[in-house]
Design goal:
Helix content is 72%, strand content 0%. The protein is mostly helical and 103 residues long. The radius of gyration is 19 Å and the shape is flat. It starts with 19 loop residues before the first helix and ends with a helix. 6% of the residues are buried. The model has no long low-confidence stretch (mean pLDDT 88).
Length: 103
């Protein structure tokens, strides 16, 4: 992060709205729709399911690519990096506690 866009540590980067969640929703719906029709004996269900999986893969590569480009461009400062790490830590902790309570 030699060239940070926001050298002031009080500035927190908030990304603009993204269309990737919509693409993911369409991909997930297409995948489930194709799988349901495949289980009901429709031959075209397999093609629709694989098309949905392809849409989901495009969404994953696109969304992660956007985050990587923002990081390389220097939009993320130390505070954003810390919030990413804390968010992932709390998520993992919540999963561990869920499985501990479940079993």
């Amino acid at each position: 992060m030699a060239n940070t866009a926001h050298p002031d540590s009080n500035v927190y980067y908030v990304p603009h709205s993204s269309y990737w969640p919509l693409v993911g929703s369409v991909g997930l719906f297409t995948t489930v729709f194709g799988a349901a029709n495949l289980m009901n004996g429709h031959g075209w269900g397999q093609a629709v399911m694989f098309a949905g999986i392809a849409i989901l893969l495009v969404m994953l590569f696109g969304w992660f690519g956007t985050v990587i480009r923002e990081s390389v461009a220097g939009f993320y400062n130390r505070q954003v990096d810390t919030s990413f790490r804390m968010g992932m830590s709390w998520f993992i902790f919540s999963e561990v506690m869920f499985f501990a309570a479940f079993f």
